[in-house]
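Tutorial, part two.
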Amino acid sequence: MRNFFARMTFVSATILFAGFAAGYASDRPGANLPNPAVDAPVATAKGEQTAVVAGGCFWGIQAVFQHVKGVVSATSGYSGGSAKDAEYEIVSSGTTGHAESVKIVFDPSQITYGQLLKVFFSVAHDPTQLNRQGPDVGRQYRSSIFFGSDEQKRIAEAYIAQLGNAAAFQRKIVTEVVPLKAFYAAEAYHQDYATLHPNEPYIVVNDAPKVVHLRAEFPSLYMNR
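Running the prediction step on this input gives:
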């Protein structure tokens, strides 16, 4: 658990590499994950729907989905707690109920909710890490899917069960599937953080590889923007 300034000073090569290894050296089947057997149909007309997920620092999750075809926008923020606690320094205590989350607005005529979840499980984070991702530890870094409809709940639960039955990961998936009560956008300095700070060691080691993996493993979904 670290505040913003402590995260900025987290530049020891040894620790950074350990965080990278923890997040990527194991349980990373990537494109070998099956397509969701249960999914929403591709929409026949252009539109906008919303998905909210959490899986570690929101910088990396946002960076991944900003490069996914069909995604209109990806916003870093907080879900799971109350409005009064939706501030970075408070959320960093790990006691607010909030998770660092990303709201994804997507066009269902270009990409389905299930396809977004495949990206989420494949390259955006490690769903077997409980209350942490790589170097970031605390309940605010938990793996969660915040569903906004019964259909999203059905698709998410079915896909987790499908991955479990296929033994897609060496360890158990610990991703929570919980109702979305509210999403609160994070402070302005957190938005587009990986894009604006590409040479920061934390981004280089922990987040940039996720985008590289997205491009390599999902070339038909990758957008260079």
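Strands lie at 49-55, 71-79, 99-106, 132-133, 136-137, 143-147, 176-179, 183-185. In part three we will examine how such features are distributed along the chain.
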